[in-house]
Amino acid sequence: MLTQINGLHHVTSLASGAQANNDFFTKVLGLRRVKKTVNFDAPDVYHLYYGDAAGTPGTVMTYFPFPGAKRGRSGTGEVSTTAFSVPAGALEYWQDRLAEHNVAGLEHRDRFGQAQLAFRGPDGDGFVLVESEDRRHPWAATVPEDVAIRGFHSTELRLDPRGADASAELLRFMGYEAEGRQGNVMRFRVPGGNAADAIDIARTDAAPAGQGAGSVHHIAFSVTNRAAQLDVRKALLDTGYQVTPVIDRDYFWAIYFRSPGGVLFEVATDEPGFDRDEDSGHLGEALKLPGQHEHLRARIEQLLEPIRD
After folding, report:
1. How far apart are the first and last CA of the chain?
2. Which residues are CB-contacts of 302 (< 8 A; sequence separation ≥ 6)?
3. What is the DSSP-derived secondary structure letter of residue 214?
4. Among the CATH numbers 3.30.450.20, 2.60.40.2470, 3.10.180.10, 3.40.50.720, which is that of 8-303?
5. Structure pTM?
6. What pLDDT, in 10s, does the model give residues 194-228?
């Protein structure tokens, strides 16, 4: 069993437009845009990162906004919901705020004894706010600090029965422990994690999902450094998983593998962080390009949709 996993590092999804995506996460949810860069493999597409003041692992939602992308189809083999943590008593504020911004899908519910408010993002993305005891400090430039989002709480994997069973075994191997069951949902948590330390598996017989705008592309798990990442990679390879070589993503190092339920997993380092190429007071302001694309800056800037902050 692995002991290096701290919880979630980031969640990366697809969107149909950069401006609407930026406005939703910064002006509605009140997160800080901590990096404005591009997709390594498609440099004419942004990679936008939103999180707390520093982009602390466990707080960062990231997006590839492909202009005009077709909306995804929900189903099995996907991350169906991303949950954010807010303080106890904050949901009344968020109900009013999200309704004021005409956010779709507002629904109050309870899971594992915690009050939740479900809602939809601009592309139909599935989100919930969860009231929980969370001592992380939020980015509070837009939303009052006493109700602001602290970071991730959990994600929900919607899987068919076979994928659910196999993914549960994988999570146990990754150091997660089964914490409880509610209906068709089983919760796993990594002991002593980073507060973004829970994963829910929802077992269902639905048809397979189709990825598109509003779909989660992958979820990333946090490890402290590259040495821990190499230990995780070796253990996964020894267990039979097909794992990529270590890839430099500028702000972290990453490895990827496909989970048994079909969800793409990443293991990302907490180092070096988002302030490696920007002052912490100005994160996310300038367009930052990977070194191999810097010589294409003039062309890339012409192709990218302007973002008005």
Report:
1. 45
2. none
3. T
4. 3.10.180.10
5. 0.97
6. 999 999 999 999 999 999 999 999 999 999 999 99
